[in-house]
Specification:
Helix content: 10-25%
CATH class: Mainly Beta
CATH topology: Porin
CATH superfamily: LURP1-related
Largest sheet: 12 strands, antiparallel, barrel
CATH architecture: Beta Barrel
Length: 156
């Protein structure tokens, strides 16, 4: 399966549209305007909130909490590394490892590759392509991409 995450060009805050391979909207993402840190709310195609990514303040490296349908399901922490970005995810054996430039990532669940994230380099806004096999992983992988994008934004 494949999803595309595109940041909206004209927006006061982080705002993304998530579409499937045919271009149909699957999710939309809106940031809280007056938050002190990243707070990204994910809505389904019926405009119902299904997820939340919230940056925790006062951490040495970016740290995010992920809620799905109001329940805390994961904490994502960027780990210190020299060559390529690495994230530890406190949730069911998930981990993410990136390449040297932080544009491509592999997603692992219990040590098995379950998805990939690639950033389109030539685009007007941040655009990610997500490939994954299990439809049950879809929303969690979307939340990971949003946290990674916010972590990269926080560091720069």
């Amino acid at each position: 399966m494949r999803l595309y995450i595109r940041q909206r060009f004209f927006s006061w805050t982080d705002s993304f549209e998530i579409t499937d391979e045919e271009g149909y909207a699957v999710y939309s993402v809106r940031a809280d305007l007056l938050a002190l840190s990243h707070v990204l709310r994910v809505f389904d195609d019926q405009d119902q909130e299904v997820g939340l990514v919230r940056e925790k303040l006062f951490h040495f490296l970016p740290t995010f909490e992920v809620e799905l349908e109001g329940e805390l399901v994961a904490v994502i922490r960027k780990e210190f590394s020299f060559l390529h970005p690495r994230y530890r995810i406190d949730c069911e054996g998930w981990s993410v490892e990136g390449n040297l430039f932080g544009w491509n990532y592999q997603i692992y669940r219990d040590g098995e590759l379950c998805g990939t994230i690639s950033k389109e380099v030539i685009a007007l806004t941040d655009t990610y392509v997500i490939d994954f096999d299990d439809p049950q992983d879809e929303l969690m992988i979307v939340m990971l991409v949003l946290a990674i994008d916010a972590a990269n934004c926080s560091e720069h």
